[in-house]
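User: I want to check something. If I give you two sequences, will you return the structure for each one separately, not as a complex?

Assistant: Yes, each is folded on its own. Here is the first sequence with its structure:
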Amino acid sequence: MKLSYLKKIRTVTSLLFFFSIAALFLDLSGVIPPSVFDGILFLQFIPSLLSFTNVIAAGATGFLIIIFLTLIFGRVYCSSVCPLGTLQDAVIYIGRKIRKKRRFKFAASLKIFRYSVLALVLVSLLFSSTLLINLLDPYSNFGRIFSDIIKPVVVFGNNILSGLLESFNIFLIYPNKVKGFNWITIIYPVLFVVILIIMSIRKERLFCNTICPVGAFLGLLSKFSFYKISINEDDCTSCGLCEWVCKSNCIDKKAKSVDFERCVSCYNCLSVCPKDGVIFSSSSKKEIKYSSSKRDFIRNTAVYFIGLTGIAAAQVKIIPTKESTVPVKSKYPASPPGGGSTEHFNSYCTACHLCISACPTGVLQPTFLEYGFLGMLQPRMDFIKGFCNYECRICLDVCPTEALIKKDLASKKLIQIGKVKFVKDNCIVETEKKDCGACAEHCPTKAVKMVPVAGANLFIPETEDEYCIGCGACEYACPTVPYKAIYVEASNIHGTAKKPKSEKIEEKIDLKEDFPF
């Protein structure tokens, strides 16, 4: 799933905060009413925190909202709300335009330094000193930059334009004067902005992950965030694009890992990943441990429940309470339909995996030694991971070597790659006296049907293997674990199944009755 829209949302949000806060400092005419200020600055972390410690009121709880958002999504404050963060992004953007070939790589975390700064700030607060907060708070520094550096420049430009218009008797703009300008007090803002620009150009968001106490605190909280950016190892191609655009240098393409404490949620990585190698998902998913087969089972269940078939729905509804006990395993690996025989398929297949890639249900999987050493990596039908769609012949169409001979759909529907086998002692109807019928419900040829159990109000599967094509829908749908109650016994030489029986529905209609339908 592509999540590039998150970057667009982040960009729009950050610009709204940036320009609204900048307007507060650059309002030369005083047209912005004071009542608006509180609303615009409500989510600024340090001002809100200090205000709350002085006056516990709802209007000073913005920092609590930021903490909540961080615990859900990570450091969205750093990417979207903090105006100094947006200012750094602007410098980063210009720097990248100037140095087009500049690529950034994963950098070691300066964790000790970062948390030492945070500790010093907290200790100073305990001793009722706000000096370090004043010097390091991102919002405060942004305010100093705009009020001490940018505003005098804006006033100077305003006065030049005002004088120019006045010479033409146009009085739309009035001259202003800078109040309380002091060269001594401007030294720190100038030094700060110079250092910030150098850090942003060379290491991008380095300030946020080394000096900023708010960034350090929120980074600490982000370890427990519900949603996190991570690397999907199955889809990652190690192209390195995410690492090159990471503003925090926190993505390691070699280890395929993300240092989420340093991630500022810019979502650049999500927008550049050509595959689904970078994901933004619930961290709780990683805490649940499944066996490989169970994980694949759940994944496929979700996929097909959405719309491919109704098989997953049956699997979700029917949950066995006992484990099956009779081991089942096909004597031969099931080769794809169209191969004619395992020998023919092995002789022509080059293991290019084009059919595996094209298979919509994922039933085609590469082998290890199932075909023997010479057939290593050639595809086989894995009915635990999927099933052969009755209405599909894609693998036959894409095979470039005639290992799978092209046939029309009607002919493919009669290819018998194996026959269904029922193991009564594994079936939950027998072991738990519970209704099921998943296998019969999803058999496309009706080779499996449900018959009544003598002396019980239950129905149990019965098979007619002459109608079975070995598609594996019944095996895939069967909910019993670890062994299936029904499975496909594959054939080395493919056969031809009988055409499914057509059932006629007879309904007596009373012609005397109006609207008999």
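And separately, the second sequence with its own structure:
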Amino acid sequence: MDRKQARALAEQLVNQMTVEEKASQLRYDAPAIDRLGIPAYNWWNEALHGVARAGTATVFPQAIGLAAIFDEDIIEDIADTISTEGRAKFNAQSAHGDRDIYKGLTFWSPNVNIFRDPRWGRGQETYGEDPYLTSRLGVGFVKGLQGDKEYLKTAACAKHFAVHSGPEALRHEFDAIASDYDLFDTYLPAFEALVKEANVEAVMGAYNRTNGEPCCAHSRLMGDILRGQWGFEGHYVSDCWAIADFHNFHKVTDTAPESAALALKNGCDINCGNTYLMILQALSEGRITEEDITAACVRAFTCRYLLGLFDENNEYNQISYEQNDTEEHNRKALKAAERAMVLLKNDGILPLNAAAMKSIAVIGPNADSIAALEGNYCGTSSRYVTFLEGIRSFAKENGIRVNYSKGSHLYKKATSNLSMDDDLLAEAKQAAEMSDAAVVVVGLDPTIEGEQGDTGNEYSSGDKNNLELPPCQRKLLDAVVSTGKPVIVVIASGSALRVEEGNAIIQAWYPGQAGGTAAANIIFGRVAPSGRLPVTFYHSCDELPAFEDYRMEGRTYRYFKGQALYPFGFGLSYTKFAYSDGRYDPERGAVSIKVKNTGEMDAEEVVQVYVKPLEFDSHGLNWSLCAFGRVALRAGEEKKVIIPIRKRAFECVTDDGRRIKAGRHFRLYVGGSQPDPISCEKMNAKPAELDVIV
């Protein structure tokens, strides 16, 4: 069903409603209208990396981990799997009369905000710091969720529109100031791509103001840009209780009816919160018209018709609950976790030689933690494999003893209120001393980095104060390293941390239900690591502008002038790759290059293409990712890889936000990393340079 048909049906239905009935349908928890055969519907559902908060479902790696895969097709397939499970659960729950929160088909995912500052607790929900990578993966995710059949399989939502990335503690009152250059160069491209390319059904507004206006009633963002320039025809939803912030915190209105009117007039159709209970009051006060209410209600029901919710013969109704939490989906979760993990450091210790080992220590507060697998906005898996369990399973198969110690609390000085500080430090050192090698699993979890209100901790409402491990973990890591035994550090986190100690370091993110198996497979060489960093790892926050400063100057690999600890796009392998015969074909608009696996292990490589205009110096831009592709190569195998480059790669943004051709002469860097000195030195693979005329 196309949108025109769905809208016509929606108009026909809405025209039969009273004004009171129409107003009731603009709440996230829309009640039934029995006389018209309309069941209750709850718009609030989440699917960031699996169907969330609604019972059993496959838990994939957190979004930041999915971004590290650098593959749009894989992300689309994962989203399609999530959508299947969403339909399976919806069909089963509806059959039992369960139409509660988190039980609908309107998923408030993906989060395509830019992870501009590593302190932001919710950065884990994003696809990283780069607007192009975020755009491509966001498009893939939306296509996977919504499908390509007669009806939408599920409805995706691009959030949080726009210019939103912390601080969490200020979000309800904060005004994010962004220039037109930064808006159209960094903050808006992903939203534009999701609207124009993926036909995303919904957009969610952010809590904050942007350049003075609240994002859930923003005349320029919502009217001029989203519905005007981009032609968005779907529905707009507020973030939860964001409209109440208008009068409570932003102080742009004085009363709840005034806030409801401001949001509705600017095109916010669905209210996550309760301010739209005041819509009829706003109507009686003359702040809105019945036509305003009707327009929002029509957009809401257009979505419900697009989902096929009024068609008993909808093919998606045949998806049974047996298609939720399957073995196949678990295999996909494992493969995703393996591809997401990034090898940051390796002095040659990895992969471990199981045949030469008698014992291994597994140490750390995240070693046996389910929370460290999940990340925020997650479902509940029936198949969790912690890092300890994954290593123990492999060790058992190979006759290796596992010596385990939690080592420390995640962030407290002791693991028991009655204990002295560092109560498990001696045990941890003993476990390492009696082992051939130690795997130390450190980092964070969603209880200390995430969304304000979902967390209760000393780290500022879910944000981080700095890039350091909590002090108790820093002390633990130093203690294990001091034993002199080989140390492999595994970091479970949704953001960058400064960790340099150890013989090898693996950034595992929050890797999902199969994270422990994936980590063991990488540590022992069953698979080669192939993840790449979707964010820059800095040495210190002191290198960055203030957290509240939304200018992009000095931020992310595109504008940072310092030397990163681990750069965007960085990731080591167990093999080496050689690049040759790079060419740009202007007729096809594509780069071709030969990639050879010169090592002795089968592996996957992420080919990255960066562009730099040679005639324009756009706000000190270093270079930008403009294309990427993942290729699997057997040991010794060579393949010719062809990667399309979009015309937009050769454009730049003017100070007033227009996109123009950035001259004719450009330099393309093609390789396994960006062309920074750290990547070239540590990855031993200087990208090929192609000077092209376009």
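Because they were folded independently, the notes below concern the second chain alone. The mean pLDDT is 96. DSSP finds 20 helices and 23 strands in the chain.
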